[in-house]
Design a protein that fits this description.
The protein has a single domain, classed as Substrate Binding Domain Of Dnak, Chain:A, Domain 2 (Up-down Bundle), CATH 1.20.1270. The chain is an all-alpha fold and about 140 residues long. α2 runs antiparallel to α3 and α3 runs antiparallel to α4. The longest helix has about 30 residues. Helices cover about 75% and strands about 0% of the residues. The radius of gyration is 20 Å and the shape is elongated. The N and C termini lie far apart (about 70 Å).
Length: about 140
Amino acid sequence: MPRRAARPLLPLALAAIVPIISPAHAESDCADAASTVEINVCFDKEYQAADKALNAAYEAAIAYIRTQTGEKPYDAASFEAAMRNAQRAWVAYRDADCKDLVAQEWSGGSGTTSAILGCMTEKTVQRTKELKDRFTER
């Protein structure tokens, strides 16, 4: 019978450590982050805040779009469907660029997670601004 390859223990070790570390670092000043884990926790906090702002801007854009009038294919329902399709495509682009391409650029090095989160945060902040600029009362 063939032997099964041993499974790496690192994912299990990290899964055990992160819940212990995260709450403590969630309240600490990220300017003092020194270790890779601390830096990643801080970058994740920044990304989560940016994602929350994006979701709010997206919901505001949808609300704005629903107030628009016009005849098909420029009616509110068609406008909203186009917005939803565009947002899905944008999320797919952001994720492919940041999670796939940036990961390749870093070759899995210790800064990969921070680089991915930084990329996602930057693109998310840009998209939030774009939605606010384009889909608000003028």
